[in-house]
Amino acid sequence: MRTERVEFAGPHGRLAAKLDLPTGTPRAYGIFAHCFTCSKDVLAANRIGHGLAAQGVAMLRFDFAGLGASAGNFSDTNFSSNVEDPVAASAFLRAHHAAPRLLVGHSMGGTAVLAAAHRIPEAKAVVTIAAPSDPHYVVDKLLVEHLDTIARLGEARVQLAGRDFQIRRQFVEDATRHRLADRIAHLGRALLVMHAPADDTVDVENALRIFGMAAYPKSFVSLDGMDHLVTGRHDAAQVAAVIAAWSARYIDGV
What we know:
Elements: E1 2-10, E2 13-21, E3 28-33, H1 43-54, E4 57-62, H2 79-96, E5 102-106, H3 108-116, E6 125-129, H4 136-142, H5 147-153, E7 155-160, E8 163-168, H6 169-177, H7 181-185, E9 190-195, H8 205-213, E10 218-222, H9 235-251
Parallel strand pairs: 3-4, 3-5, 5-6, 6-9, 9-10
Antiparallel strand pairs: 1-2, 2-4, 7-8
Helix pairs in contact: 1-9, 2-3
């Protein structure tokens, strides 16, 4: 297995990415969308990317605009731009390798790939890991104490995962405009929903809503004993193994 550094154009400038490649010809290509305010190098993204590459699936993991090594100002981004970024990643793979058949998203990255899937026609399978069922969940869960300040001043400095981020009114308003029920109900791809029952960042009820709204084929895997960021030493490897085994029937072949 080897990893290549790549970059491609996104709506807010160049997006930095890493392409985890298997030894030999890939069975298929996939995209990994990381968690909210994380990066392509967060443990889950890195380990799951490597784990899938070891199973023959080349995975492109990228930094969303304004995060990691990607261009852009985080305060200018929102859920709409988070949807555009995996679409741009798919265009890069389509032009330089092969269009992605597998879309994997962690936390808000999972919500983003659910919203973006209809714009990536080659995708055959979608996987969400600890994903909110609606982008407004982030507003309700993480920003609720700052909403008055954002409404009054137009922005607020918010500490997320130990770092400060500037959140503007447009982020809140954009999240409110998105309702994913129809997108999920008409996903048109096989869906694997993965969630830890004890997740204290995104309640497991989100996973149950996603699963309930989706049509078959769909599967649900309980990530017993795992935390939201899948930080346990062997957890990400287990997640990657499950994704590889489940997705094989959908992404292998033409």
